[in-house]
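Consider the following assembly input.
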Amino acid sequence: MIQETFKDKLVNFSFVFPAFLIFSIFYIYPFFYIFILSFQEYDLISSPVFVGLQNFREVLFSGTPWWDSMWWNSVRNGVFITFCALTFQNFLAFALALAVDRVVRLNRFYRVVFFLLPVLSEVIIGLLMKQLLAGEPIGRGVLNQIFNNIGLSGFTHNWLGTNSVLFVTALVHCWKGFGWAFIIFLAGLQSIPEQLYEAARIDGASAYQSFSKITIPLLMPVLTLIIVLTMLGTMQTFAMIFALTGGAGGLTEVPVMLIFNHIKSNQAGLACAEGVVLGIMLVFVSFLMFFVSKKIREKYGVLSN
Amino acid sequence: MKFLKLKSLVLLALFVASIPLVFMSLSGCTSKKSKQDKIIIWHWMTDRKDALDSLAEQYFTQTGVRVEFKLFFPPDVYASKVIAAGRAKNLPDIFGILGEKKTFASFIKAGHILNLTPYMTENLGAWQNRFYEPTLAVTTFKEKNNYSVPSGVYGVPVDTTMMQFVYNRDILTKAGLDPEAAPVTFEDFFSQAKKIKEILGIDAFVCGWGETWLLNALATEWAINLMGEEKFQRTINGEVAYTDQAWITVFSLFARLRDSGFLPTNIVTMTNKEAEDAFSKGKAAFSFNGSWSVNVYKQKNPDLNYSFFPIPKVSGIYPAKIWGGAGSSFMVNANTAYKDKAIAFLKWLTSKEQQQFLIRETNNFPSIKECEETLPPILKTLKPNLEVLTHPDVWDKNEDSRVLEVMNRGLQQILLGIKNPQDVAEEIQKVKERISKR
């Protein structure tokens, strides 16, 4: 074994140094700076003033009872949209990926079509859907106009009204987001060796058995990845909802929107505290998900990586 | 091998050395500034871009001094850019500030804004006396103000804005109402709007209440009319609770509007642009908007037949006030090398000819007194408002932004029908008390 000299180490480190420098400036420094600011009152212009845990108290315990606050309301909205994304969005993506995996003809065409929506800007989607649901005629929208014109006036509804605005927002989010889950599912399905299915067929396994004993266990790492990415992505969603409803009096306000509003009103310390709390919540949920997935994979006898 | 290593190290050193250069050029710390031969002005006013560029050309022709207006849009992006530039000490010679007076004060305290008082007051106050008093008050800090800013004038207003009601005269006529008899009281407004909805089936009133500051402006106008400015200020000072009956009455006005059936169903997700669009297309009879809307309506529908009217009064005891003052103002960078040139330009910009040019081109109410004869008829009707203007930026103390956040959210929730005025009042008071304890 060749002994690595100090000079070699220095040379090696020097190659890493530029990347390390950029990473430090744009990732590590902002991360710690946000953490420091969360303990300060800061209007972005004057010098920050240390306020201890005041911002965290404001975020976590300002309601009476404590869960009746803007922050927890936004978290509840975020969790609801995430739940819809985890179930409806991912189920749709999985079903379509399964279908496209089986279809040989036009396979590429479907891939492109389903991946178009995630490529579009969130703001564009939000503004278009706003026109569709609540644009012309004022507050009633193009969709209701269409229903009226084709004699289905019974289906007209105040889509962005009090009772349905959160659900409709979640649906739009799922509609916009299913494409990327579809692509990952499809890649996962196509990575399963065909021989496994052939062997199962020879052994007399039914289609359901092949699906439950081969497809699902082997897709578990992909599923875990999609669940974690869905949770992280949806809990941090903002632009589409901002363009679609603007928060609708708190009915569709999500955590990042609240952070944005506080930054906009120059309450940077409070916004940073909210960012730190959201970050901790997401890291905790992600680790929990990886732990659960590991247990499931062990149960199914799939090798854990 | 050694040569290769040496070569790699040299390349690495060059790369590392280039990083600060990249940062310097990105942040504008190059020699560019020292060679600058023009006054740079940052602004956010898309509607005035051509007019301002044209004025810059005229100024160059007259004086030989180059002025460059740089537009940054949307306003949120502009506001962030100015704050970032302030932190980086990289502000232009002249710039505007968007936001509360607290933000304005922070810029002054950080040494970014020049106190213009000596220039305003020279020659027996020739420059200062040009302006309408309530307009200049927005950029003025009084003696012993709550912001701990040395007293003085810190900004130059280029227009005056006023928030009030507007109505479509043709729609009123169609509904059998007299277009000359604009509503005076809230009850007049309410009954006219209801009648319009019943007869014509259109939404009688639109407003961009998805943008909460518009809700806050109207609530403030009604609150001051109902309880008087003194009691209103005492609420901000914490001496009157938001659970006071007068405040609950103010919040109840929004509940009445909600129950009236003449508001569009999406009013709390509606932006001001959407409301302006709906009103200008004749899809609503009334709106609550600023005086800048004259230009917006003209661009969207030059044939729109409309008039302004003061807020429908909710009480005859106290005078009604109108939310307004300086619409857009320019500040001079305290650290610019072109201080005198910048001030000379702003004096020129706020002189009669240039303000008349801006009125013709942009239909905004001017900041100076001398150009009343140039005002188009619709803007002339706004002149009496100058006597009753008020704005958070001229008050001794402004409400905490967290209290305002809860109030604005609460008003939206009243309009959505998920909270009642009493609950909203209690919520606001709880936040007020929590913040007062600090």
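Chain B touches chain A through 50 residues (CB under 8 Å). Ask yourself how this observation constrains the way the partners meet.
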